[in-house]
Every structure is written in structure tokens, then in C-alpha cells.
Amino acid sequence: MSWIIATDENPSQFTVDRIMDENDFLLDIINKKLNSGDFEEAVSFQKILQRNLIFLMQLKSQSRQRILRGPYFWECKKL
């Protein structure tokens, strides 16, 4: 999923779902690597997981900002 994180385009729901699937896969790999004692490899996968999570949090933050700037929010504030 690195290609979507490196672009400025807004990801589709399909892409977000794929990132979530990748995160699930990464968690499994990290767990297996830690259990086998391969800590360096686990850290490399953890970095990818962290990048994905930060990307998803930024998406959430951006969507929240759009909602707060939208006309509906300001209409409600006037009431």
C-alpha cells in the first residue's frame, strides 16, 4: 500500500479496507517473528504497521476537519 501513502490522492473505501487487511496481516507476522525471537525482522514490520496507522489517523483527522468546515456544522452553531 506504499503507493497510496506516497500520493496526494484521496483513497477509496476499497483502499482503506486493503490497508486494514494489510495491518491485520502485519500484526500476525509481527507476533510470529517475536515468538521466534526474530526481533529485528519484527521491528521492520512494525515500522510498516506504524506508517499505515498514522496514514489512517491522518485520513480520519482530515475527514473530521472537512465536517467541521462544512455548511451543516456552521448552521448548527448559529442555532
Describe it for me?
- The chain has 79 residues and is an all-alpha fold.
- It has four helices and no strands.
- Helix 2 (13-36) runs antiparallel to helix 3 (39-69).
List the helices and strands and how they pair.
Elements: H1 2-5, H2 13-36, H3 39-69, H4 71-78
In short:
The protein has one domain. The protein is built from four helices and no strands. It has helices at 2-5, 13-36, 39-69, 71-78.
Number of strands: 0
Largest sheet: none
Low-confidence stretches: none
Structural class: mainly alpha
- Percentage of helical residues? over 70%
Strand content: under 5%
Mean pLDDT across the residues is: 82
Helix segment count? 4
H/E order of the elements?
A: HHHH
Features:
single chain, about 80 residues, mainly alpha, elongated, SS18_N
